[in-house]
Amino acid sequence: MERILFSLHRLRLMCLQCSIAAILYATFPATHVLADMPVGRCINIGNALDAPFEGAWGPAITEHDLDWIAGAGFDTIRLPVRFGSHWNGRIWPGFLARVEQVVLQAQERGLTVILDLHHFDELMADPDTYAPVFVAIWAELADRFEGHDERLIFELLNEPHDRVTTARAMELYQSVLPLIRRKHPDRWIIIGGGDMNSLDEMLTLPEMGPNIALTFHYYTPIQFTHQQQAWTDQYFPPTSWGSAFERSAVRADIARAARSDMPLFLGEFGVVRKADTASRNAWIETVRKQAEDHGMSWCYWAYGAGFDLRDFRGYEWYPGLYRALME
Ligand code: BGC
User: Fold this and answer.
1) 87 within a domain of the structure (yes/no)
2) pLDDT mean across residues, the chain
């Protein structure tokens, strides 16, 4: 009897602790030490240096773009770069010089730059053959950017998929981390899991040591965020978003990502410009605020690339979008 009473007491105590935890959690959601990573509000400059060549998928990056980005209140750009197909024993010198030029031009405007190895399709299809190229690329980048201040961050591999599972990606990261750390002992480095940097794969990654942040990409529901595009595998017709159920599902996902104790970086999220304005703004604001409430820094996809923030004819923000993303 005593044991039963004790158990009941313990149960009640546990329930009390649960309620206190629930109240505390609601009042002070889990936060991460990400304030230490010098990234707050970031914008992806996608479809430029990650295209087969700069200009193939949209306009080349100009100093005017960087002025606009810094003036709009972003502190960071994520620069996706297709190094994999600009490599022939070493990174094409002219291409690397162009990448460095953009890095310097952004930093001159006070922007931090996340240099991201993007669209390495050859590696995804055949990691055994291309792993040495991955190592060679990071060895060269580690040399080239040695001595840069902390406003440069390395993101080792965008969206591992196909034959690059999370386990394979971890092997790739382990193969370059020591050589990067020799020249960049304190630099922030970002890594993510397989399945296109999915949230669930990210949550399986182990603790990786100081100054390493985990990333995930978020576009759920894809039928809404990627609607009316000719380039997606499947065509999604126009659809709106914003019911209470839909909002709470998105909030729950982002809260789930925050289970990780590592510094977190929501490296891509966005909605195509073709979605209706009210739904688009609501989704962006919901995701952005939930990420901030959980101490994550974030990076909107993208400056252009059909997910645009601004009307490139008049250089104005699309209606309501500044409020949704920045306020
Ligand atoms: C890809 C882009 C794509 C975006 C949204 C990025 O990771 O590189 O090509 O537009 O995700 O799907």
Assistant:
1) yes
2) 90
